[in-house]
Design goal:
Number of helices: 7
Number of domains: 1
Strand content: 15-25%
CATH superfamily: YfbM-like super family
Strand order of the largest sheet: 2-1-5-4-3
Structural class: alpha+beta
InterPro entries: DUF1877, YfbM-like_sf
Pfam families: DUF1877 (PF08974)
Radius of gyration: 16 Å
Protein name: DUF1877 family protein
CATH topology: Hypothetical protein yfbM fold
Order of helices and strands: EHHEHHEEHHHE
Distance between the termini: 10 Å
Number of strands: 5
Length: 177
């Protein structure tokens, strides 16, 4: 089973109040997704998406109050999936996406890393891997910053969904291994 957390920019006028529409939004093949990623219209995080959320929002009990830092990864209004066994979609309005973009533009990655380093390194248990792990988080930070900046520039909303492959007939289009 593979897990990918997708963030997709959507013009507010194109949004539909339909969980089925949200599901179809994420039904594209990997080549189409990759093309949108290249244009900063979509971002994909792997199964470590919760660690990326912790980088911005903190780790309980020291989690940041609700706001742009908590909206970067897991924030948004939940919209139930048509299949109740699957996670809900998350929707950030255009205004919320704009505030996230401003937050990311003003945020110092080094400061975030220093605050979350211990927690983010814990699952790896290898201090010698810190350079590579930090580099992966820094790269994702740059990608998320570019995604939200482009989204804010267009005045778009963001729809997010945790895509789980290997769960049966409702699997989304394949992503790379």
């Amino acid at each position: 089973m593979s897990v990918y957390f997708h963030l997709r920019a959507v013009p507010p006028s194109a949004l539909r109040n339909s969980a089925t529409w949200f599901r179809r939004l994420f039904a594209d093949d990997w080549n189409t997704v990759r093309e949108r990623i290249g244009r900063h219209r979509e971002e994909v995080l792997d199964k470590g998406y919760r660690h990326h959320a912790a980088l911005y929002a903190g780790v309980p009990p020291h989690q940041a109050p609700d706001g742009p830092c908590t909206h970067v990864v897991l924030g948004g209004c939940p919209v139930s999936h048509p299949d109740p066994s699957l996670p809900p979609f998350l929707l950030l309005t255009a205004a919320q996406a704009h505030r996230v973009a401003e937050y990311l533009e003003e945020t110092d990655f080094e400061h975030l890393w220093r605050q979350a380093r211990e927690e983010l390194m814990r699952p790896y248990g290898m201090p010698e891997a810190e350079r590579d792990i930090r580099s992966a988080f820094a790269s994702a930070h740059r990608d998320l910053t570019a995604f939200y900046a482009q989204t804010a520039q267009y005045g778009d909303a963001v729809v997010k969904w945790l895509m789980i492959q290997g769960t049966g007939a409702s699997d989304p289009a394949p992503c790379p291994p």
